[in-house]
């Protein structure tokens, strides 16, 4: 189990003679109390590496140097999605400033990874029309091997009171194929709106996005075009339609952004790096030499817990104490929990014992040397969601399966 593995990983790092006042680890002390266990700087670095590896990250993402990006439209959208994921699916609210509808919630439920991309200025030669706007997104951070569920582009439209009477508009999105050839543009999607509309316009850009991921050199961006909803209407400027196509000071929360939904092919798989294997060898050496340490609270705790029945214990890793708040937006920490205690006869109802565990306990009583007692292990695991900056301009919301122990039992 992932949580049991994390507990074993962290338990070898715990020392009480550290001078660093900050810690990242909070655990049950065996007396129904949560205790802070300090870590040395070296041990904290190793814990950071192990947790990053567990989360499927080879390294810590780059720092977000511009604090205003945290208030941008892309992070705000994924924060809304993050909050909706924490809700009970049966009582989940679709109320959101981004108008999360049924299709959005379905894509959210089907996804293991959701990435958002802010529109960037990218100097490329223009297309012939140029009354519309060019948009470009850096998709180089898209993880390999993920199945694309869907991709949408969101453009904010402000009410344009100067256009009277209220006029119907057609906003068309094109993929830029070539900037100096015959076939410059290809229609991606279009949306009907009016000059009095206020809110987010949604475009399906799945096909264009997939082509950029497969062939990065083909990413020449998108072209946004607006026409009056009349025959032979001339193309008008996007500003005249109230479309926000660039991020100006004070308008970061309305800047264009793209959201991609992915389904992981192997959500349980975690890559084990060479450094991880080396760290495990060091931990094994530590465990062999643990008598040289003046005091290890986990040893006395384990002895005390051996007299207790199987139950859920506290294990919390603080992201803030690891100084990860510059790239992790939410949550503040990881409440993993773990299972500990004995499965002794009689197995009471609160131990959640399986029928097999009951029989095994009886046989153990008759032949202790031949059959061991059942083990205390998780009976229910839950996923966690982590919202973090992949880079200064991209935000990712990732679902990690079977990361939190919710209940324990004898097996």
TrEMBL record:
GO BP annotations listed: developmental process
Keywords (A to Z) from UniProt: Cytokine, Disulfide bond, Glycoprotein, Growth factor, Secreted, Signal
InterPro entries in alphabetical order: Cystine-knot_cytokine, TGF-b_C, TGF-b_propeptide, TGF-beta-rel, TGFb_CS
Main location: secreted
TM region(s), chain numbering: none
Signal peptide bounds: 1-18
Tree of life domain: Eukaryota
Record's protein name: TGF-beta family profile domain-containing protein
Pfam families: TGF_beta, TGFb_propeptide
Chain intervals with Basic and acidic residues compositional bias: 268-281
Source species taxonomy: Eukaryota, Metazoa, Ecdysozoa, Arthropoda, Hexapoda
A GO CC term attached to the entry: extracellular space
Cited SUPFAM superfamilies: Cystine-knot cytokines
Annotated family: Belongs to the TGF-beta family.
Region feature Disordered, mapped onto this chain: 268-298
GO molecular function: cytokine activity; growth factor activity
Location relative to the cell: Secreted
Start and end residues of each TGF-beta family profile domain: 281-411
